[in-house]
Amino acid sequence: MTAWLSFLVVFLCSWSLRDLVVEACTCVPIHPQDAFCNSDIVIRAKVVGKKLMKDGPFGTMRYTVKQMKMYRGFQIMPHVQYIYTEASESLCGVKLEVNKYQYLITGRVYEGKVYTGLCNWYEKWDRLTLSQRKGLNHRYHLGCGCKIRPCYYLPCFTTSKNECIWTDMLSNFGHLGYQAKHYACIQRVEGYCSWYRGWAPPDKMIINATDP
């Protein structure tokens, strides 16, 4: 298998944020904090150009971006000029608009190039909540040692002290839910992790649908 096809297989099966299906592209929910922590690159940028490349079996779209701020990836690539994605949405390719919006874009670096897709966290900047912006600046980084475990059916229990139970899936909201929009799971005293929104909630080993 060629290096490109090997990467493509890993990319399509990788962690994801958007709970959607676009033909062959299937993604499962992931909390924004996990999307942040699992990314090589996290930036705020404006798309200023695009070009269809002939890389890969179906082509690759190369977006030229003007980087406004980098939140993660300084040691890997301190400045991002291009973002690559599959040209086809059926292969999880992202469609970004040129000279219109600023975007929050997360991605992985492969052979010196930044790749993103439908299963990565990307969003128009003005749609992010204040808590998500604070998370990008500081809070998500504090929780990269924590594990956010999705809860699909009650009751849900933590199995280790570094877990936070994510209950947005109980209402089928996923990354659009209240916890995803307003909470970060950060590490506290003695390695315990718990949800945080600007005040210190009590540590709990069992969480229900109303918590936080």
UniProtKB/TrEMBL annotation:
Location(s) in or outside the cell: Secreted, Extracellular space, Extracellular matrix
Claim: Translocase is one of the keywords in the record: no
SMART domains the record matches: NTR (SM00206)
Binding site for Zn(2+): C25
Highest taxon above the source species: Eukaryota
GO terms under biological process: negative regulation of membrane protein ectodomain proteolysis; response to cytokine; response to hormone
GO molecular function: metal ion binding; metalloendopeptidase inhibitor activity; protease binding
UniProt entry keywords in alphabetical sequence: Disulfide bond, Extracellular matrix, Metal-binding, Metalloenzyme inhibitor, Metalloprotease inhibitor, Protease inhibitor, Secreted, Signal, Zinc
Main localization category: secreted
GO CC field: extracellular matrix; extracellular space
UniProt xrefs under CDD domains: NTR_TIMP (cd03585)
Keyword Signal: yes
Domain NTR, first and last residues per copy: 25-144
Signal peptide: 1-16
InterPro entries membership: Netrin_domain, TIMP, TIMP-like_OB-fold, TIMP_C, TIMP_CS
Disulphide connectivity of cysteines: C25-C92, C27-C119, C37-C144, C146-C193, C151-C156, C164-C185
Family the entry assigns: Belongs to the protease inhibitor I35 (TIMP) family.
Listed PANTHER family: METALLOPROTEASE INHIBITOR, METALLOPROTEINASE INHIBITOR 3
Protein name listed in UniProt: Metalloproteinase inhibitor 3
Native organism taxonomy: Eukaryota, Metazoa, Chordata, Craniata, Vertebrata
